[in-house]
Amino acid sequence: MVTLSNDAGMLRLNANKNVQRVVSPSMVMGLGSTSCQIVRKLEATSENWSFEDRKNLAFLYMDTREATRGEISRAARFIPLVLPHFSNLRDMRPWITECVPELKYLSLSREGALGTLANAGVAGRFNYSDIRGHLDSTIEQICPYYEGITYLRIHIVAFLGGGTVGALPVLLAALSEVRGTAYNFSVVLHLLLPQRGMSRDPETTYPLQLRNAYAILQFLRSITGVQVGRSEHTGGDSFTITVYPDKRIEAIGPHFDVCLLHRSPKDSLPVQRNHVARVLEDLVADAWGTGQDWWARFHETMREANNQEDARFGSISSREIGLLDGFFTQTAKQYLQNQWRSRL
Amino acid sequence: MARFKIRRNRPSFKEMSKVLPAPVDPLSFIHSGRQGGGSGAAREAYNQVLGSFHEILADVERALSSIIERLRPDGNISDRMAVEANSDVRTELARASTLADVKRNELISGISYRLQAMFLQSLILSPEQDPPVRRWATLADRVVQRDMPVVSEPSHAELDVNPKERRKRITNWQLETDEWLETLCLNRTGEVIAHLLEEIGDYSASWTDTVNQLRRESVGGGRLFREVTDPEFWTFDNEDPTVKNLVSGVQAQEIATRILNRFQLSNMELMEICQWVHQTLGGKPVYGSDRVDILELENLLAEATAVKIKDTVAIDDGFISLISTNTRSGEELGELLVEMRMGAAAMEEKMWRVGEYRLGHVDSAAGVGITASSLYDSVLRGLGGGRRFAAVEGHPNNNHRFEVQMSTVGASLSDLAIFRDMVNAWYSWHFEERRGENGSRKARMDAIRKESWKLYPDIGQNSGVRPAVIELIDDDLRQVWNTSGDVALRLAYGHLDESEGEPVHVPENGRARLPS
Predict the structure, then answer these.
(1) Residue B172: which of B68, B321, B39, B293 has the closest Cα?
(2) Using CA atoms in the order A285, A286, A287, A293, what is the torsion angle rounded to 10 degrees?
(3) Nearest Cα residue in chain A from B228
(4) Chain B 112-141, CB below 8 Å of chain A: which residues?
(5) Which helix (H) or strand (E) holds B33?
(6) Vertex B121, ends B117 and B126: CA angle to 5°?
(7) Cβ-proximal residues to B237 (8 Å cutoff; 6+ apart), any chain
(8) A240 and B303 in contact by Cβ < 8 A?
(9) Global pTM value
(10) From CA A109, how far away is CA A113, in angstroms rounded?
């Protein structure tokens, strides 16, 4: 049995470059190591798309692990969510105490958020100006204002069970500020659900991942403006955060259009990466194939929807069948073997 | 005192420039069709390379003539003019040397690239023939390295003489620079030819080895032979288990044979294959002592060739007819898509429980080449089911695949299959671990608050979303309680925020009651 390598999977070299795949300018952002790998895979696939398609695409990577920079392409935009040495930080600043009671509680290494949402929350607040700067320049890149394009779609990929997803509120606040400018965009969240079989230690790590997932999903519910219970605190779709050095950001909703939850068909990281990247590829390619179809039907469904609930969540399950690249490689081997056997 | 003695039979840049060709591509002779490689062909090849150096140095030659012409025989010459002329001549000679070096490096790099491409092309198209580059071994006779001649530096006193003598000395000086330029061209050409001969030696030696290895592998019993003939190798898996191959084993072999029967590589495609392999190797040579491993080379050639093969069957109708092995192919395809739909539906079922608020499904399916009406109908029938599917639309051009997507939008989070697990996990983290450690309710709450910052993305009391999140969680707990489950009993042990309401009571029947 032949198993296709990563590269072989990515190599859709046959792709007809004249086909237009992307009609809406799209920015795809990876938040966290797992997500950055998925976005990287999509970026690699898109390298074989036409120039016009690639002009409509931009990729942005964010992670609390600095090592992620080495795993993505050199030209990619990467925002390291790291803090300077603690001795250079002043304790009890609002942008810190919003997330941790005191600076001493913070334990952000350069090797990730360690599963603690607050770690990434502080790092996101500290790097807010970087995030804004990259968002502005990336949007300007795919939506040149002088061309009159003011609409774009933003895809954010994040793993719900990790710690880096704690920077999501900061990212949404930054997007809210950008939305306040001349751009109009829709935000699609792609959140990867934790799965027991993929945890390092299913007995201890998995419940913590579920706990993180629950907290973040509740945060997302709360900013949809849903009203529950006595509605003392719910019902508003705005929230406020303080970012470094002491700037208050009023994040006004709506913050996202749809939040798609992804479950890997198998408890394996490579499977998760391939599967989610494939679904993401379909949605980014909104002028082609199932992506085009999906977006048409999505808008139709949402238009017809008369739901008063905070239901802005969904999922996509996809299956594909066809002549895989491996078949053609094997056919090419047969061609070469024919040549050599008959001529040598 | 400068010497103005001119030797006989000196090489002349000017004279040679008149007879040499000005080739657009000085290395075109490497893969030219001219056979034989006799003295005539060798001379032509040599002259092409030499001509390219002449072309690049023509500008220097004009500049040198201009410098020397400034020292007219009948005019006055000052000391400064003599010094400046000497300096300018040295500068131009240095420029000539640099330009020639750059050209030499460019040609050497070009030789390597062309020979590598030729090696690959020959391996695919004519592996039985001897390397065509051997004929250029005759160029070895023409490689001669000469000592660079000395160019005089005449002083003011040597030039400030009577016009007749000065004309003679200036003419001699010009001849010296002319000879120097030609010698530079000859030496650099010699270096290029020497490199070419070295490459040809490596090429020829590697060619024999490579061809012998390929012969062994492609005949009966060889590795490549086994790979191609064994149906086991015709089964493919993708890292994503939701991506499956349409054909496998003997059926795949039959289809491959059908494809190859009508497949032929064009020259352009062959060049593209070589270019891709060369780029992928990233500088690693295909011949020579440190050449790429034969297996890696074979795999790269196969991958690049696969792209070209794939292009030839990227025709909508052609693809369908290609995979149709019997009269029931249409129905089989419909059945296949039904299976895919069921698979996708099963994946969806793993995500969501049947809930009240799942708003809509956004389903779609796409397949290439479904244009025949009978096939179209059978596929649509197969996909129909109880759900609304989009029409099966053909992917533009080249996509050898069928795809079925099922999706849900407008769902409530409480419909998630792992919803209860998430609530349990959240609750356990807050309460369960603390039960044994803290006696009083207040102490328990303090302990929870002390650690809660680790979890919430925003703990701002006044501005943040924490109160809203807690209100939502409280609502979720009520829902979970109402539907029964293990969380319910734990509710008896506390509430996250006392200000939210009354504590939970555990009545006598053992079931907790939430504050109203």
Answers:
(1) B68
(2) 120
(3) A334
(4) 124-128
(5) none
(6) 145
(7) A1, A2, A3, A4, B245
(8) no
(9) 0.75
(10) 7
